Amino acid sequence: MKIYPILVILFFMVLLISCKKEKEPNPVIVQNPNYLLSPDCKQWTMFLPGSYWVFKNETTHTADCTFYKHGLYYNKENYYNGYHEYNWFFVGSKVFVKFSLAGGENGNALTVRLPKFQEMIALTQKSLVDSVVRDSVPGIYTYTLVEKLPFFTLNGNNFTNVVHTKSRYQNSDKYAYDFYWAKKIGIIYFKKNYELHDTAWSLTRWHVNQ
């Protein structure tokens, strides 16, 4: 029987194709995930020159104007585990000094510096979907998400989707700081318990630029 060379070649080609093992896809390895600032978190915490907030001292009934002093500053550092982003600005106020937002492994964290006191975490955010998720932050201050309020009325102003957080020094109520946040406004109510003496400030009027 005569076998044509072309048929032999075709036979071996079909055999080769059918026996060829599919190449396994390379595993996806995430390197330098980048801990960046989310646009949503910045709407809660970061503002531009020209912004101001007028608070009423609930004890003395005097007004304190927290005004934008200088900023907005930005930095991006490349660490061993990726890029970290930072925003911060300073204010002129009897109540607050500086607001600093940082991107990190557990999401975004905002720290607030008070006069004659070091910075404390006042708001955290892990994702765009949930504005605040972390219950505690290790370190000197203990940070807690207290509650989320769908409605909150203050000095005749109605706020929606308000987030109430608390920062305590060494997990003690002797030094406790309560923050109430509204998106695109910032802090609307702040209560300081210093050596068991309460002082609270409530927002009466404001103008913000973002």
Feature tags:
single chain; 210 residues; 11 strands; globular; 2 helices; mainly beta
Please, could you describe this protein's structure?
The chain is mainly beta and 210 residues long. It has one domain. The protein is 10% helix and 52% strand. The chain has an eleven-stranded antiparallel beta sheet with strand order 6-5-4-3-2-1-11-10-9-8-7. Strand 4 and strand 5 form a beta hairpin. The longest helix has 15 residues, at 5-19.
Give me the secondary-structure topology.
Elements: H1 5-19, H2 39-45, E1 52-57, E2 63-79, E3 82-92, E4 98-104, E5 107-113, E6 119-125, E7 141-154, E8 157-169, E9 175-182, E10 186-194, E11 197-207
Antiparallel strand pairs: 1-2, 1-11, 2-3, 3-4, 4-5, 5-6, 7-8, 8-9, 9-10, 10-11
Structure at a glance:
This protein is mainly beta.
Task: Going across the biggest sheet, name each strand in turn.
Answer: 6-5-4-3-2-1-11-10-9-8-7
| CA-based shape | globular
Percent strand equals over 45%
What is the structural class? Answer: mainly beta
Q: Kindly report the average pLDDT value.
A: 81
* Largest pleated sheet: 11 strands, antiparallel
What is the element string, with H for helices and E for strands? HHEEEEEEEEEEE
Number of domains: 1
